[in-house]
Protein 1
Amino acid sequence: MVVKIENLVKRYGDLIAVDHFNLAIEEGEIFGLLGPNGSGKSTTINCLLSLLEYDKGTIEIFGEEMKPTSYHLKKNIGIIMQNVAVFEELTVYENIDYFCGLYIKNKQERKQLVEEAIAFVGLQDFRKFYPKKLSGGLLRRLNIACGIAHKPKLIILDEPTVAVDPQSRNKILEGIQELNRQGATIIYTTHYMEEVEQICTRIAIMDKGKNLALGTTDELKAMIDLGETISLEVLEITDDVMDAIRTLPHVIQVSYEKHLLKVKFSKGKHNLLRLLDLMRDKEVAFGNVHSELPTLNDVFLEITGKQLRD
Amino acid sequence: MKHILYRMKQIIRQKTLLFWAMAFPVILGSLFYFMFGSISELEQFSEVPVGIVNSQGIENKKADVTEESFSMENVQMSAEYWKEEAKKQSAEGFLTMMNEVESDNGTKMFKVKEYADVSKAEQALQDGKIKGIVDMEDEYALTVKESDIYSSLIKTFIDQYQQNVSLITDVAMEHPEKLADMIASMSDTAGATIQEISLKGTDKDPYTQYFYALIAMTCLIATMVGLNNGNDIQADLTAVGARRNVAPTPKLVQVAYDFVASFILYCAIVAFVIGVCVFVFQRDFGNHAALVLLGGCIGSFTSLAIGTVIAIFTKGSVQKKEGLCVAVFMISSFLAGLQWADITYLIEERCPIVNRINPATLIVNGFKSLSVFGDIRQYAVNMLTLFAIGVICVIAGVLKLRRMKYESI
């Protein structure tokens, strides 16, 4: 077990930021902590790192209790903060070397690691650049390089792709998967469901400090009733047809807005076929047809009654 | 070592900080230099060339006035005799005094050139060879080419001399028995004056105090560096602080690295400012530049510690802490006499404790006691007090930092 959190409680006055939170992360996982802004993800991470005092609970990393003075544990942890944490007055190379130096004392070893980190995030051409000269995406890459240069066994990434262009985002996500392939266990917090779906092996969905659901993407999707959402472009539709659709097997919800008919089905077979047959029988003309499987947003919506990005 | 070098690089690359720590003191010092330089130059001139019209060839005798020469026997002589004698000796005395009077720095005040002919003296005045003409035949009438500090000085000297001669003459005429007492009294006064100015230090330029305050201010700007050191290790203040807190290098060790780097670099900055004062602004600090540098280093140490303590102990944003820090070093510098030199005397009268604990005042007064009064003991006391303040701040900072836990980030 790389990380074990039991019954964690963190209060800010009357507000409970983390509410009896439990978590267990195995070695080699890319674990996603998914939740909207203010759901308690960063607070949980800060407690995990012993940056914050917490009111209740226990936290273990690599099987040992994590304390502010657990320096032997900290050696194997890499952190990529939500805010870019670099020195403005040091160049790309110097920043990575400085932060790596807090973990690695051997000069030769550090030099090698810094070069590898620079190559890993693709900043070879920017090694003498100061952070203020870098774009948002490059700055995020530097932030990551500073956190992973010492080759930690556990890497915690707290919303590393906020305000990052798509190209850099893909580069970052690919990098995280590569780090995992190299043996690191990853904890990845974000409110972008597409990212966790893309890279995470297991996901915990958080809201109001609570762990609402835990599992793989498929397991989470299996927890909800929604099986698929079918969308049809329809110029005009009558109430009779709408009522007829509602009588089809497995239909959960039917809506029509801006010439788009959306029908949500629970898990079942031949939903699309039945819907198209009905449209033909009722002589309703339709255009493009799309069938979507449930997303994590659907999971979040069904569990909490609100959108993930609300 | 790597950490120390990187911290130094960070500080060196902070242009704003470098401006305040290096450029600002130099700019301010330049202003002082040009403002006070001309005044000081006039006050410390070596010799003012004066032409004396002496058609009767009165001898310039070395002053040999002693208490014994004014014995009671002499005093008993008639008043008329004293009146005539005074007049006769007045001219000789004037020449003697003018030749021998010295300014505070021990240099002759006047360079006397005697002329038998008024026209030659006037020609010399026109040519700028002399600053004024004193006609001994015409009641010491003064002729000057223009009214300036030199003419004022010559006039003041003449007036003072005539006043004294008149006083002695009058006493000799009306109360000859009191003449000896009066001479003794004048002698005592002279003695007191001598005692007051016979300072062991060699720098008596009153404007040097502004340069001391300038160095003190430079030291105190180190509070901003100390503040940055303190901020950069706090996880709830800066992202960098959070990253450093999760590193396996203990934060006290990291702070120690930062402090050492800042101290070394800041000593170099203070040395630079002192160097500019010595070599550019021509302040030799009473030949104690090395001890002034030592004081500057101690001042930097304490200022760094104060800045770190402000960062660690106060709550609020980085901006709020920076504002507090600027207020601390500006107020401290003001109380040390950077803007108004006399404030330290005012504080000494009203609330002397402030002068005993204000870092800037400790630095300034330490330097003054060293180079003006030549009092190395007082310098040592001030520097030890300053160092003790720094040590107290360091201890307080370490204790607080060790126990520091974050409620929120």
Protein 2
Amino acid sequence: MVRIEYLQVNYGRRANALSIDRLEIDKGERVAVIGPSGSGKSTLLRSIKGYIRPVHGKLEVMGIDLISASAAVRRRVNRRVGFVFQQFHLAPRLTVLQNVLCGRLGITNRWRSLFGLFSEKDCRLAWEAICEVGLREQLHQRADTLSGGEKQRVAVARAVAQEPSMILADEPVSSLDPAWAEDVLELITEIQTHHQTTLIMSLHQPHLARRFASRVIGLQSGRVVFDEPASSVTDAHLEELYRGNEIIRLNPSPASAGAA
Amino acid sequence: MVVWAWRGSGIDIAALAKSGPQISSFLDRMLPPDLTWNQTEARPFDPPLRLAGTAVAITLQISLMGTVLGTVFALLLGFAASENLTPHWVHHSVKIGLAVIRSVPVIVLALLFVGALGLGAFPGVLAIAIHSIGMLGKLFAEECECVDPGIWEAMDSAGANWPQKVRYAIWPQVAPQIYSLTLFRFDMNIRDSAVLGLVGVAGLGLWIENYRRAFDYASVATMVGVTMLVVLAIEQTSIQIRRYLK
């Protein structure tokens, strides 16, 4: 699904925000990317999504090299990749249904969509996605009146309505309180299983990464520090990863859970 | 700067103080306003109250059409003039174009169109529409530049094209302000279209000018009064609507 070789990405004024020799993610994998702030988690996801163009190297998504591909081909790949943002990015003043239908914009008839007209298939997929995230009751509620957790559910439904082969989630739970965070992660992983998509998410909390992902990649200063199955990630791994940052334990005691 | 302005503008308080009699005689001729309905003596025009209805209607029609036409084009140009929505050369040149349009006073536009198309309502509509494009286009673009760019990115992620992104990422964020700005512009256009009567555009202003030329100051006063009432009424309505839109 994703193949990276000697990839180098600059982001903003930061050279080498990402520098990865080799990374392969297979179809259907459930990957968590963790690391301290500024370690390149978002840069990795944004490069895969095509928001950032790498300087050099090879970045293959769904068998297509994004660096050499034409804009039209990149758009086609892009359309099959759902993205969930930390800040939800829902359109205000539009309802839950309208927001989820926005996931269909790249596929539906472009001109009709400008007048709010969507095909039966679009509506069916949107409805199914909304049911799946459990917001059937709020179908016609305005998105800006929802709580944070509900907003992220709408954003997930929007990505699902896109019929993605891969879902990227960039710190999907960082602006949610712990209870909602687990709830949303459960939802995302359920959806990943149900739709058999590939899932790559960046997370700030190692214990959540180990619990919800099957593979954990540790990034530090744009480099891969470890890449292990979730079950074999140890405290030593994390201490190395967060060295110089606050120490985050794998199984936080209740006292430190809030800080994590 | 202020001194410079003071000297140039010929402010003469003594003259103002001595002008009391002139002002009072002017007001004397205007007051009381002519509120007669029936034609009592030979006059060049009908009594003002008889004409007021059609005059108000034409003024409203001109400003409404001008505002509608202006808003449609201002929307298109406003999106094109937003730094966050178009490449540099597009928004830069559209911005310059809008500034040029804005720099022409509405009365000069009206003079131009009256010269080209003759007296009537249509030149007024064109003048108001073009002036509105210049003003609203800039304001709309400023609104669009203040939106949250994340939503644009999210629509991009779904594969939306430019018009779709404008429709679903920008429009929901700016719609309330755009309604409000448009109503405000409509308000101002009513005042503008009344003034355009001076250069021959139909409506309230034209009748004020006609009566003035006939030295019928009592009728001028009536028409001015009617204009003030209309402007106040529209202003109040638009405040109410804008409050509702928020």
Protein 3
Amino acid sequence: MSNVFKDYEDKFPKNIMEGLKAYIPKDTSETKTRKILEEAWKEYQEACVEAGECVGLVAAESIGEPGTQMTLNTFHFSGVAEMNVTMGLPRIIEILDGRKKASTPMMEIYLKKPYSAGKDIRKVALSIKETLFSEVATGFSINIAEGVIEAQLDREKMKDIGITDAILGKQVGNHLKKGYTLRISGDSMILKCRSKEEALNELYKAKEKIKTIHLKGVKDISQVLPVRRGEEYIIITAGSNLRDMLQLEEVDSSRTTTNNIFEIAEVLGIEAARQAIINEVFKVIESQGLNVDVRHIMLVADTMCTSGMVKGITRYGVVSEKSSVLARASFETPIRHLINASLVGETDNLNSVVENVMLNQPIPVGTGLPGLVTTLKSEKKKDAKESN
Amino acid sequence: MSDVYLNQKFVGTFDDGQKLAQLMREDRRRNALSSNLNVFYDEKSDDVYVENGRGRVRRPLIVVREGQPLLTEKHILQLEKNEISWSDLIKQGVVEYLDAAEEENAYVAFFEKDLTPEHTHLEVTPLAMLGMATALVPYANYNQSTRLNAGSKNQKQALGLYAANFAVRMDMDVNVLNYPQSPIVQTVMHDISEYDKHPAGQNVVVAIMSYKGYNMEDAIILNKASVDRGLARSTYFRPAVAEELRYAGGLIDEVSIPDKDVKGYKSERDYRFLEEDGIISPEAFVKEGDVVIGKTSPPRFLSSLEEYSLASSTRRESSLAMKHGEQGIVDFVLITENEEGNRLIEVRIRDQRIPETGDKFTSRHGQKGVVGLIVPQADMPYTGAGIVPDIIFSPHGIPSRMTISHLIELLGGKVGSLAGRKINGTAFDVEPEERLRHELLSMGFRENGVETMYNGLTGEMFQAKIFVGNMYYLKLKHMVANKLHSRARGPIQLLTRQPTEGRAKEGGLRLGEMEKDTFVAHGASLLLKERFDSDKTLVPVCENCGIIAVFDGFKNKSYCPLCKENTKISQIEISYAFKLILDEFKSLGLYPKLELESKY
């Protein structure tokens, strides 16, 4: 029985093989199984792309044409005014260009058991949200004569978020420059400069720096929104920090994800990034009610990730990797590409489509691909002589 | 304390800005201040803005006091008797002009019956919110606004009697409708603009039905007999202009029949219509290539004159000929002088345009369409009374566009033509549809305008009753005769050796980047190559250095400019555009070396 499967193991891709194994009942006879597999193999070959099929261009057209129909480029979450997500064409462009910074980074945080059922969901969400010093301060004043910076604290807010004087003192203390002393008394935090000589300029800089001190939560997470999805609760955030998020004990690290592809590539590796590109692009296309086969997107994601890191479809990314000078030059900044190529004396072997269109020669796809292998008459004679 | 600004410049303060604005307005109505002055009180910032400069858009409104318009029956009687005029009403403060800013302080009633004590103004007529062309759309208030936009836009492109003196004018590219009519369904704007003096369409019988699919996608069907009777016939005028230019050295262009030894002489046939003075004779029927004004110019460079010293033969031919695809009859010849004192010859060519499939027509409701088929009268559907429609309009144009006015005009036009009177279709002030229906019924028709019709081809009665009536139809200036274009072979550009662009130059139809992609996607490699063969060339290439070689026509031999003789030179077939880009590489200082290898 397993022998029959073994024969086909190398032929089928792994997941199709597994599917077949699961589908065929265990008690099927060997000959019958063989017959089924033979049929499946025929079908599989039928479904394969023919040699010379122009898959890249078809993928480009298949994504590009629906792209012209896309509208509505942002999506808003109800309840949180500051949270919106770039969608539509701008988002697709952003992903395919391989921009390091997403315009609206966002995370979907799945939680472990008790929390996923909704236990302390608000508290968990709030603990994730980043709190900066400026959020708990109501005002600042600088006394130049004494070299003192005074910050009024919002006690109520501190209590809400759960920041004690100890945390405050520790976090601010960590970021302080030498020569400052810190004292918290009542509703104000007083920073004193030991050397009174400190210029106003310096004091001002110090004040601005204090404002951005991170007090609590996960860095870069500016907004949190607990949402019920199906049976469980998840947290959607504005801002993204995958690495730190996965460290948290409440977080289900196997499902938590971000829309920042570079972060995924860094934390989880290139294969995860490839899947993230596919998911993100497909999400946009689906949300627009358009219908594009995933395999087109998979092809694009593959080309972006084959080098081992995420590269955009730009003149600095994927296009710069083309082997043909003329193909590169025909994309963007032709003169730069030509001059750089001439500096190293590059040769263009005219192996791809663009170059051959330029030269008005048959392009090596479809009917232009197969060639006739034959020996010319003159060469035949030569061969004959040599063999003699 | 409010700040007061005059023409955006601060001039002072006033205790109560609201009061100041009020006082100034009263003064204006009493004629103590210029009627050209507008005051705006901004409640938010407590500022008063006074404007009397130019460039503001203003519109007239009737002043209302305590819920009563100041314009009374007495005024109207006086106006009718011509005792007072519009400007008197302004002087009396009955009507005033508001600009965009002052409108913000006004509360304007649309109709007199809507007036409350809070209102400050009354609209002169609701029609005032529409522009000139939009007000020409009958039953406009029954429509979606986008259709009004389309309707008024279309009217501007309609052919008509654009100027009464067109016969003595030399306009560029104009059309005149041969038998224009005054519309049966009119608005007051037709009276105001004296539309009867420059009508732009014709009243036709329209049936709303389909005809064998030839009127799908907004197309319309024309009745051949109607066309033969002169429906939508128009004349196209286009002048050919030539000037006797003066050149340095006292040389001058000369209008005459060119001598046979002139450089660039066409053929004797091309000059056959010219009279002795080199200008074509009126009423000559000219076609493409025929010379309209014969002209020769002095040689371009004086040096070439000395070289060959054959002074007479070096003049250049620079005649004005009919362009590709053009034809017509010479209508009028004008000989005059221009500002520089050069002799100027203008020849107006006229061409009769009989409606044909592809010409564009429209009703006044943004329901434009192209003629899909011209049907012999015998094959057209007819009503029980024997009425044959001039135009068949597709019913599919109605639901999505919701042009109710189109349907009402059809009904109104039917009543108007049967009763022999004009129907008022002014927006917001129409003759009620109810009454039109009654009148139609009283004349022995179905009150909803439908009629039993018969298939013209088979004589069978149509199951459905067909909505027929009269409408005002416009012929638009886009005619196929000016647009039809195709090319198999033809002129190419000098630089790129690719086909020229555009209809006027008998150009090719570009197979662009995205179209190319479709060929690639289908894997039609060799078909794609063939499409792009338009500029293919054989280029000699030196196999030693890979540079394009030079062909010496005298020796009938190619040689390499770098390696000189004795190198192997092979012909390669590439697009001329690629040869050009290789040249550009060289101009960049790059060395584009071609490495040749055998194709097989």
Protein 4
Amino acid sequence: MNTRTQLFFSQFRAYESIKARLRREKFRLRSKLFTMRYGLAEAKTDYKSFQGLLSLTQTPFFLALIFGTFLQFTDLYLVDLYRKFGIKIPADGDYATFLATIAGIGGVFIGLYYAAISTVSSTIYSSVPSNLKDLLTQERYGNVYMRFLSFLTFLCVVLLLFRLSGQPRAYLAVVFIAVCSGIGIFSFVTLGKRAFDLFDPTQLSPHVIRDLNRWLAHVKVGAFRWNDPLFQGHAQKQASKSIDTLRILATTAKKEAHLSGESYVKLSKQIVFFLYKYEISKRNIPTSSNWYEQTLEFKDWYRTEDSAVSLAHQSGTTLQPETAHNHQWIEEQLIPIVLDCITVNYNENRFKEVLSILGHIESYIQLLAQSNEIDRAFDFAGKLATHITENLQGIPGTTPTHAEQIELLAILDTISRIPITIAIGHREALQKTLLREHQKSISSIEWKSEKDIYSHNFPLYCLDQLEWLRGKLEFEFRSEDRYISPSWYLQEILRLSESRRFTENVKSLVNRGVEFYERNITDLRSKNRHWSLSAFLSREREYWSKLDFQKNDWNDSWKSLIENNRIEGLAWPVIDLEELGQRGKTRETNSLKAMVDESVRLALLPRPKDFPDYPGQFLHIAGECTFLSMIENDHQLFSEIFDHYLAGCLLKFDAMRAEISGTDWRAQQQIKIASAPILDLMDISGYAKLFSDIHDQEIFWDRVVDSWSKYISGNPTTPILEILAAALGITESAFELSHRSILRTQWQQMVQYKLSEIPTHEVDYGGMISATHTSVDHESTLVRVYADGRHYSPYDGIDAFIEFFVRAQGNGSDLDFGRRRSRDLREALEREKGRYQEDNQE
Amino acid sequence: MNRRLMQRDFAMASHFPSLAREMRINPDSHMFAEDIRLFAMPIRHPAPSSPNYNVNLVGAQSEVSRTKDLLSQFSGYGRHSNEELLIDAIGEIVLSLSHEGRALYEIHQQENGQTTLNQFTSQKLIKLPFYYVQLIPAIDQELWKRKFSKLRSSRVWKIEMPSRLGGYKGYRKILSELGRFDSTGPKYWREELENGTISELFNFSEYSLNRDIYLNRITRAWGWNRRAVSSDRSTEYFTIYKSARFNLSEAILREHIIQELNHLLSKLRIECKIQVTGLPTESGIEEALEQLEKGNIGFEEIVTKITI
């Protein structure tokens, strides 16, 4: 019927009455059809359950059959023997007895099964809400078995009735009954065992999850009446009931000590697995489906279309509110169950169980991130961390102890890793943006089809926009008999959605990342849990490093989203990637300072072997960052961390030295390894002098001198300079690469690279043969020596440290630092000074 | 000296008050007619949106004067410039066209040789061979002192809606269809609503959507965007497209009227041609629409190109 005819008829009440009647009839018919389909689906599931039952009993069944056949065949050869011994073939009466016996057994089995169920029900289910009891009575295997058994029992009764009515004996029936009774007896054994499982109500959870999945399948695009709001609403109500049942199951499991462990965890894992599948399924559910819980939104009088306003005014009524949908209604109800399970098990010190759920949760969170749901992923991660840290008891005092359990550390490490999982998931989602996958998909949408937009795997946030577009395009088509909005326009509208989500995600990755780590680290510090705190610090560094790696992708994605946009005035989101980068950087610096601080704190304690070497990791990172701060002329950071780094290196040296035993070559090797932190420290300290000259920032060198001086004067009994000389001498005495020397060589290369940025000029020596040398344009003699234009400088930080600090100390000039350090930097400096003066005089 | 002519000096009645009182004004048809009138020509001259608008009367000085005299009959404000004269003339003609689908003028030759045009109503008008006959309603016979009027076809200047926009009949059909379905729902439902018996039989949202689509379909030839009333049902692109299509229709109408005015001049043996430049043309708007579809021009640019 065309629009005009529809409007014409709609002027008459009778038409609307007929239409409503037809609609009701149609609904009744569809409901019947739905019931039939539902019944068929039920029958199919029952059949599968029956098959399952058969599979459970097939081994004993076939064994019995083989044995029966064996007896039957043997029987033929034994007839003579029977006669010889006087054994008679069963008479007519035996036939009836046989059937009566089977019927009797069937009745007894039925009674026994229900007796078992009643026992379970009266002990476990007596005080639970009715929907949990319903679950017990709806237990599928038991129901199927009871139906089968009652059929068999009644069949025997019927056959007996026939016999009593004078009908001949049916030999086939005897065989059939025998077979069925075999199944019945073996099934009874299996189900009997199963009855014991029912003492654990959570064993019934798969039935509930299956129901939930079934109702979910009803609202997915393409299912029967998937777009009918009444059917959607019905599915939502049923799913809501299933969720209530799950919640009651969880509460029951939580209350019972014997269920709150493995059973509760199993239930929670099933829930997380369901949530995982549900997240994928959401792409196939219209966002306006009544499957999603409805809320009312009232309209603005001055933003509503004229006809609705006129109507409301004329009739003296208010504007009809619009319905909004809560797309997270299932998650809002199920996630607390999982979190509660974690808290219960955590409080009971069942750490392995907690870890096993966390593995499932991590996969779910990764999926959220891959689906561009970064905020939701952080919400879950935040709640998870809060549930654990809130229940974490503080350790008295302010210094680190070994009171923290390794299992607990593993849990906190898993939680602190979740933001990294989110970052990785987001990167995968970014690739889709970069490849313009959604842009390509929108071009192939069949807009006429109600279903097609759901078949291209668009994420939920795009579906909303696509549904909006489809409504508009349908209006265009019905108005103009063709689509008017061109594909470039549609792509751009979709890009708008994508860009909004992109900016939200990137902001969340930075801001919520900062918030997540900051809050948890502060909380753990207040509870004096330094190892746990270190787990967070270690993971935080990895997190920022992952984000740093993504930054190019962010720029590319952002460009691909906003480039060549043609629609003016669209509210494109704004994002300052530089500012976000700076926020991340600031947090990273704070985290680094905390790391350096923790490296010293933890170094005071011997590390248990099963604990990760956080102090070592932090000390190494501190060294790298101290060095980089000099390269980048970040004197503030250098000043803040150098003291701690110095203390950390010396403590590490002491700790490693203390573990050395013996005097043989092995001990010598251990001494070389133990000296590595000292060599690192000397190298960095020396480079501080060089960088003070390069950047003309005395603060680098002043800080080094001040820290070393304080340390030496604070430990008057320790021959520190002698120890330094010995450590260097013994490490470099052999013709081999010393421990960590490759890392120090990398620093040296970076210094050379930095020095190569300083301008140079060629100076002619004059004379008969033209010869030149490269002169470095810098005031500092030290810089010129290190930046020798033609050759790779033979000097490193250690040389500068020895020359400018050690030799300046009272006994420093006499110390022997080994053969390799006999290169006289002082001479080189004097030589360069003279040459520089000559060059300038000329 | 020209004598000021009174209505009774003309053969045909200009209007019938009794019919005007009976006429039910439908908001949509009123808006439609109003929009056609408002956007046919610039509202004044010079107008910021049409700075290049120019009217050139091509002919001998005496013929140009005659043309200006003729055009000034459409204006009630004593305009002097060609541009203003044409704005008023086309405005007056479009007023009749937009409400009735055609405009009829009685050509009256005065004793001094001057030609006067008098618009008469097309209501109760019968076209016979060589004659137009007007049947005057009984109530209005007192006013016009006669039962009917007749006029030779040769003394009538008739202008109708251009055929590309549906012509006279097509336009009349649009006007009648626009008022067919009330925006606030069918009468029975409104009554039920006012009585407080909210019927669940009727779906107002569906009705409203169907009505919007229906109005779009019947005015499709014009591309009327209904003052963007249904913009929340359509994309921004579609709204802009409709605006451009409506401006295209206005350009077609404008060019048609100018062509008809030139025909009138030649019918009255005035050797002068009206030439208009600086306003959006049919071909210009069509090209802009093509560019818009390809995404070569933005929304603001096309709006600037098509707006008067």
